[in-house]
Every structure is written in structure tokens, then in C-alpha cells.
Amino acid sequence: MARDEFQRELDALRDEVVRLGEVVSTRLRKSITALDSHDVSVAARIADADSEINERYLDLEQDCIDLFALQQPVAGDLRFVAASFKILTDLERIADLAANLAAYVVGAEDEVFPDLGLTDLATTAVGMLDDALAAYEDGDPTRCSAIADRDDDLDGRCERVAQQVIRYLVDRDPDADELELLLTEVTRVLLTIRDIERIGDHAVNIAARTLYMAENDDALIY
Amino acid sequence: MNNQIGDTDTETDTNVSTDSGTDSGLGATAGVETSTTTTAGESEEQVRDEWTDYRFDGPSKLTVENLDVWYGDDHALKDVSMEIPEKSVTALIGPSGCGKSTYLRCLNRMNDRIKAARIDGSVELDGMEIYDPNTNLVELRKRIGMVFQSPNPFPKSIRDNISYGPRKHGEINKGLLARLFGNDDSEKEAELVERSLRQAALWDEVQDRLDDNALGLSGGQQQRLCIARCLAVDPEVILMDEPASALDPIATSKIEDLVTELAKDYTVVIVTHNMQQAARISDQTAVFLTGGELVEYDDTDKIFENPESQRVEDYITGKFG
């Protein structure tokens, strides 16, 4: 096969993107564990450790730019590099959101809402991320639509939980002091829900770019 | 203008070997059975008609139907059918020996000059069959001009290079008789020379030395002079056979800009080995592969982003060829 070095660089890029994805996924799982156990010290470490991922992200983005400039990929190779370039951004954003989730745990005062099932929501989101990464690694278009379908389900669940929180606030009819505390907690919970929902969106983006990469099909790219 | 015969490469090296069995693992894509590859690393694949059935808006300038070319026993071009849209750039790409230059030369009957060549099929220019026995070849090649790989100006002045063609075609009268009869066209010639050189983006560089010998120009300037010379006889189609392959990057980009500009008024068909060049300057791209087959013909972005043929994908991504 001709262009061996180029092919090696493409394979290396795929491996590196997948590895970054695994690091991000692990980070996210740790955030979920901290969320579940209210482990403030673990959460604080995750919340502060984002710069390493950012550096890796910038390195890999530069690798994509180098491939565009120096190898001028076309056809399937072009779609692979273009998709990887976009997927890297989604991974970096997910890492930011994982840090956010950890930071909310650090900031939590009390357990006002014990049983909202936030960790279940987050576990669904991280499962979508893992599946999207596996589809990308294998160049498998068949799993991509299912990830988008799961996101519709996740969005619905997030909305219902958010409504549950608002309803609790309204029904509670708190006095001034309690209202102060509740507003802080409600905000924290709503942000947590929003960020989990966004992680799902980024997982769908990864699936959408993978479908484009494999089939030149932009059906999932909004 | 028919004065630039120098390229008699007959492109006969067909590398096809069906029994090589050197499967490189390429080309195993859905719906296409590819179990073997040729010695060139090309996978076996049946060409589908829809891959070359290019649809476009607007009129077609050249219509090629079932064109076959043999050089002796060698079947150099196999049953090529293709419509070329007016006022656009059509790139022909493919590995050496794929028949793309042969095809280009069929479009203004340059292959007539190669004795061993036998041509079968139809090429119509605006609906007129150019292989009709009554076709006036001088007139045909005036309408379909050609520019070659290495610039080949006449060893004459810059001015004479431009006015030679129109003078031969009787469009410019100069000299003793014309002066005696009072129809000296010197002014017309000056206009034509300036217009042609401007169109070829060369005027600013040579306007002060029109009487200098053209061979004193740089390679890139000589090539633009050849394009100006081609334009001077007012062609409708310009065929270019790797016009920038002998030029440096600056000269190449000037030719590329020029091609884009020319496509506003002319139909340009260009053979190039430089795939990035084809991608940069052409509106549609035809891919010829080993064995003289037209494998895929479509919008250039389609070819370079999502070709239908696995062999085309393998070729343009550099996996063989």
C-alpha cells in the first residue's frame, strides 16, 4: 500500500482520540461517583484537573491541522480527519462538564433533594459517550442512530427531574431563610441536570460525526 | 490552433493483471465484491453506469458517446461516454496509462495524427459530429484549441506568436499586398495581441517587449503565451494537457487562476496528474483508471469527498497508482 506513513498517522490519530475519550469517560465516571457519595475531596481533585485534558486536546487538534496541511486527505480519509477534529471538541467539552459536575458536588451544602436519580441520568450519559466512542473507533455507522434515540429519552428524563425540583420548591412554601438555602440548592441541581443533558448532546455529536465519517451521511448533524 | 504536436506518448502501458492475487485488503466495501487486486494495487470492481452518468444544469458543449480507441492491438480507451458542460472546467485524472490524454486528444481529433490509432464512437461539438468525414480539421482545431505540458512557443517575437494563427486563418491581413490594397490590419493586430495577452494574464509583464523573442520568456510566461496564442483564434473549447506540470508553484498558481477566469467564457478540459490541482480548479472531475475505463465522473467535491467507486477512493487517497 502506498502512503504508508500517512496511513500510520491516521491510525495514530484514531488511537489518540479514543485514548483521550477514555480519559474523559473515566473522569466523568469519577464525577458521578463523587456525586453519588458526596465525596467532596474527590470532587475537588476532578474539578481542578482539567488543564491536562485541554493540553492533550490542543495537541490532537494540531495533529489534525497538520494532516490537512501536509497530507491533504481526500474522500474517506478527509471525512475521518474532519470528523476527528470535531469529535475532539466534543470530548474537550465533556471534560469541562465533568469538571462542572464535580464542582457542584464541592459547592453542595446539604442534601435537600435526596432521591432525584441524578446519578442514573449521568450514568446514561456516560454510557452514550462510551458507545459513541466505540462506534468511532470501529468506524461503525450502525450504532449511531441508537445513540441519538437514547438522547431523546435522556432529555425527557432530565426535563421531568427538573420539573420535580421546581414543583418541590413551589409546594414547600418556604420562609425567607429556608428559601435562601433552597434557591442555592435548586440552582445547583438544575445546573447538574443541564450539564448531564449536555453531555448526552455531545455524545450524539460524536455519533453524528461518526456516521458522517463512515457513510458521508449528515442525517444526525443538526 | 493546430501547431503544437509534440506529445506523441501513446499511453499503452496497461498494468492490469487479474491473476496477481496480491490482495492488499483494500476495497472491501459494502455492495462491491472485491477479492483481488491488480499489480498496481487496484481492486477489481465492476464499473457501474450511474457512476459516470453525470447530470448538470445548462447546455453541454461536448457530447462523447461510446468512444473506443485502439493503438494497434491495445485497447487504450474503452467505451467512454461523457457530456462536458459549457463554460466550466472539467478535470481528467487517473494514473499513467489510464487513457486520459488519449481521451483529451480525441476531443479535437489530435489522434488522427497517430497512424496506429483507431477510433470508434462519437464526439459532438454543439451537436455537430466532429468525426464526420466532412469535418474541416483546421476549423475544428480553431474552435477547440489545445495547450500542452511543456510550453512550445514559436521561435518568433511575442507579437508574432499571437498573430500567427489569426493571420493563417485570414483574419489579419498585413504585409505588402494588404498595404497596397489599403486593408492593412496592423491596428487590428495590435488590439488582438493586447486582448489575448491580457486574457492570459501576461500583458503587464510583456507589453514593453512585444518584439522580443518569445523563447526569452520564463517557463511560466511561455505557457501563458501559449494560452494567449490559443485564445487569439477565438476558440470555444480549450484542451489542456498538464499545463502546469513543468512550472514552479508561483507560475502554477497563475495558470490555475487563469483557468478559473477562462471558464467564464470558454469550456476548459484539463488533464492533470496533480489531484490537488484538479480539486482546486475544476467544477467536475472524471476519473480514468488503468485499462482505459472512465470509472467515475461527477461534481469535483463529490469525487474528492465521497466517491462511489472504491477504486476511485483508493486512487485519490493514494493507496495505489
Automatic annotation (TrEMBL), chain A:
<dbReference type="GO" id="GO:0030643">
    <property type="term" value="P:intracellular phosphate ion homeostasis"/>
</dbReference>
<dbReference type="InterPro" id="IPR026022">
    <property type="entry name" value="PhoU_dom"/>
</dbReference>
<comment type="function">
    <text>Plays a role in the regulation of phosphate uptake.</text>
</comment>
<dbReference type="GO" id="GO:0005737">
    <property type="term" value="C:cytoplasm"/>
</dbReference>
<dbReference type="GO" id="GO:0045936">
    <property type="term" value="P:negative regulation of phosphate metabolic process"/>
</dbReference>
<keyword id="KW-0963">Cytoplasm</keyword>
<protein>
    <recommendedName>
        <fullName>Phosphate-specific transport system accessory protein PhoU</fullName>
    </recommendedName>
</protein>
<feature type="domain" description="PhoU">
    <location>
        <begin position="119"/>
        <end position="209"/>
    </location>
</feature>
<feature type="domain" description="PhoU">
    <location>
        <begin position="18"/>
        <end position="104"/>
    </location>
</feature>
<dbReference type="Pfam" id="PF01895">
    <property type="entry name" value="PhoU"/>
</dbReference>
<dbReference type="InterPro" id="IPR038078">
    <property type="entry name" value="PhoU-like_sf"/>
</dbReference>
<comment type="similarity">
    <text>Belongs to the PhoU family.</text>
</comment>
<dbReference type="GO" id="GO:0006817">
    <property type="term" value="P:phosphate ion transport"/>
</dbReference>
<comment type="subunit">
    <text>Homodimer.</text>
</comment>
<keyword id="KW-0813">Transport</keyword>
<keyword id="KW-0592">Phosphate transport</keyword>
<dbReference type="InterPro" id="IPR028366">
    <property type="entry name" value="PhoU"/>
</dbReference>
UniProtKB/TrEMBL annotation, chain B:
<protein>
    <submittedName>
        <fullName>Phosphate ABC transporter ATP-binding protein</fullName>
    </submittedName>
</protein>
<dbReference type="GO" id="GO:0005524">
    <property type="term" value="F:ATP binding"/>
</dbReference>
<dbReference type="InterPro" id="IPR017871">
    <property type="entry name" value="ABC_transporter-like_CS"/>
</dbReference>
<dbReference type="InterPro" id="IPR003593">
    <property type="entry name" value="AAA+_ATPase"/>
</dbReference>
<dbReference type="GO" id="GO:0016887">
    <property type="term" value="F:ATP hydrolysis activity"/>
</dbReference>
<keyword id="KW-1003">Cell membrane</keyword>
<dbReference type="GO" id="GO:0016020">
    <property type="term" value="C:membrane"/>
</dbReference>
<dbReference type="InterPro" id="IPR003439">
    <property type="entry name" value="ABC_transporter-like_ATP-bd"/>
</dbReference>
<keyword id="KW-0472">Membrane</keyword>
<dbReference type="Pfam" id="PF00005">
    <property type="entry name" value="ABC_tran"/>
</dbReference>
<feature type="compositionally biased region" description="Polar residues">
    <location>
        <begin position="1"/>
        <end position="23"/>
    </location>
</feature>
<dbReference type="GO" id="GO:0035435">
    <property type="term" value="P:phosphate ion transmembrane transport"/>
</dbReference>
<dbReference type="InterPro" id="IPR027417">
    <property type="entry name" value="P-loop_NTPase"/>
</dbReference>
<keyword id="KW-0547">Nucleotide-binding</keyword>
<feature type="compositionally biased region" description="Low complexity">
    <location>
        <begin position="27"/>
        <end position="41"/>
    </location>
</feature>
<keyword id="KW-0067">ATP-binding</keyword>
<keyword id="KW-0813">Transport</keyword>
<dbReference type="InterPro" id="IPR005670">
    <property type="entry name" value="PstB-like"/>
</dbReference>
<dbReference type="GO" id="GO:0005315">
    <property type="term" value="F:phosphate transmembrane transporter activity"/>
</dbReference>
<feature type="domain" description="ABC transporter">
    <location>
        <begin position="62"/>
        <end position="316"/>
    </location>
</feature>
<feature type="region of interest" description="Disordered">
    <location>
        <begin position="1"/>
        <end position="50"/>
    </location>
</feature>
